[in-house]
Amino acid sequence: MNAHVTAPAGTALPLHDARALTKGGIQAMIELDGQTYFLRITRAGKLILTK
pTM of the entire structure? Predict the structure, then answer.
């Protein structure tokens, strides 16, 4: 499944580089409202976000 999201005209969505978030590694922690999530880059170059 390949979903493409476009921002409404006149708005810009923030763009974050996954490799920058992982500082060149394959995992990063992301916090939202006191909950920690884990972002992982797979060997196939896909992203997985888990709680």
Answer: 0.75
What are the tens digits of pLDDT across the range 4-43? 777 777 788 999 999 999 999 999 999 999 999 999 999 9
In this structure, is residue 9 part of a structural domain?
no
Three-state secondary structure string covering 6-33: CCCCCCCCCCCCHHHHCCCCCEEEEEEC
DSSP letter (8 states) at residue 45 = S
Alpha helices per DSSP H over the chain? 18-21
Split into its structural domains, the chain has a count of: 1
Residue 40's domain comprises: 18-50
